Each structure stands twice: as C-alpha cells, then as structure tokens.
Amino acid sequence: MPQAVLSMSASMPSRDVIRLGPEGGVRIGGEYHGLVLDGVTQPGLCLLNLEHYTAAGVAGRFVPRIVPEGAELSFEPTADWAVRSTIVYRRHSECAYEATFTFMFERRYEAFEAFIASYFPVSTPPPWLLCKGGWRRPQPKPMEQLFVARDEQAANRVGDGRWAMLPAAGYGYRVAKDRYAKALMLTHPAGDDRVVMQFLKPGDCSQLSPNIFAPAHDLSIVGRNVSAGETVQVPVRLVCRPSLSRADAVEMHDSFATGVYA
Q1: Residue 128 lies in a domain
Q2: How many domains does the chain have?
C-alpha cells in the first residue's frame, strides 16, 4: 500500500504528537522522539526511540536531538560522532508502524551499533523472546540492562567497553546465556492482553535488550564495522494488536525478514 510520510511545522512544540492513525502517532524532536501509542507508551516517552551510539570501547550517551522541518528526524554529526542519522516514521497499515533508520558515516567505526529504545508503562513485564531453546521471558535484575545476543560475536561485543557508561551511571548490565532465534520481542504493555511486537531482520540486530527499571524493551542495530562514506539503512517494524499468537508473530517476522511482507 502507498506509504505517506507525515510532516510537521518547525514552529510546532517539539513534544507535540502528530497523529498517524486512531492508535496514536509520532513525537518528532525533543528529549524523546518516536512512536506514541495510546495506553501503550509510558507517558512522556516513546517507542522506537534512537537512544545511543556505541562502538568498540566507547559510547555516546543519548544522541543529540534536532527538531526537523518535516516528518524525517535529523541527527547531525557532532564533534564526538561523525555520523549523520535520519529516521522516517510511517504508519504502514492498520496497527502496524515502521521506522527506517539511516546512518551516513563520515569516518570508520569498528563494530558500530545504534541502541534503539522503546519505553512502556511502569507495570509492563519483560518481553517474550523466541530463543534457540524456545520461547523465553528474560528476567533483568533491578537497575540492570540485559542483553540477549544473536550469536557469540554479538555477545562478546557487549563487554568490549562500550557499556562502561552504565556502571558509571549506577546501572548494571549482563549478557544472557540464551541466544535469540528470531529478531522479535512480544510485549504486553502494563501486563494486559494487548501485544506489541517489535521485529526486524536478524542481520540488522545484534542484541535484544530489555530492562525493568524504565521499563524499556530495546534493541541494538547495525552491529558491524562501517567505513567513511558508507550509508546503512535499517527498517524496524512495530505492530500493536489486541492479541497476537506466537505462530502469527513468527510468520510476520519471517515474511518481513525475507522481503515478502511489504
């Protein structure tokens, strides 16, 4: 179906939410930017929020925010991070949204990742993940970011020094023993029957990463060496439904990952 990109006036307050459909819309600019779904998103926060840059041994805590002229969010390079980033949020279809993250690099980064955060109401339990041993609901400790990696390389990347900023800020972090089998998370906002599913292609996702202190159900994208002049684009889809079976979730993920689910 045609996908129209909504626009906003630069004079509008950065915390205004532009409606994409009856379920909610997008907040463009401000401290937290991204999808806002009624009764799902923690008040004042967002889903699919571009949160941090990381590379081997370093991290940029909170990407600088720039209020854009249109529906596309822009993040200009800074003295610390020579990368220009854009996000386009679209309402893909009924109850389905897509965020396309584009990164244009002005220098080489080893093992670059972008950390994408989705905040939920405070009573939201950890998400369900399909791991290589079956469905699991990881249990982060209080004040801990838990990483469920795609493979051993992605797991080792968590400990390369990039997340040293977390203990410095009073948080812990840990890599789960499980490895995910599908790049998807099933969240029940506030513990109710509704289901929010975030999903993307496994090759675009290093780790799925829930915490309970926010709470937020996050993911790390790109996860590879990048060169100066290179452009990387990662689409992430989010579906919010009154109910969603695990079988349908897997089918939806697999169709999207193979390019069938347009």
Answers
A1: yes
A2: 1
Mean pLDDT value of segment 135-162: 98
* Phi then psi dihedrals of residue 248, to 5 deg: -65, -35
Is residue 235 domain-resident?
A: yes
Are 47 and 26 spatial neighbours (Cβ–Cβ below 8 Å)?
no
- Domain contains 32: yes
Find out whether 216 and 119 touch, Cβ atoms under 8 Å: yes
Q: What is the pLDDT of residues 237-246, one digit of tens each?
A: 999 999 999 9
Question: How many residues are given for the chain?
Answer: 262
Range of the domain at 188: 17-257
Structure confidence by residue, pLDDT tens digits, 101-139: 999 999 999 999 999 999 999 999 999 999 999 999 999
Domain membership of residue 12 (yes or no) is no
pTM of full prediction above 0.85: no
CATH number of the domain where residue 232 is located: 2.70.98
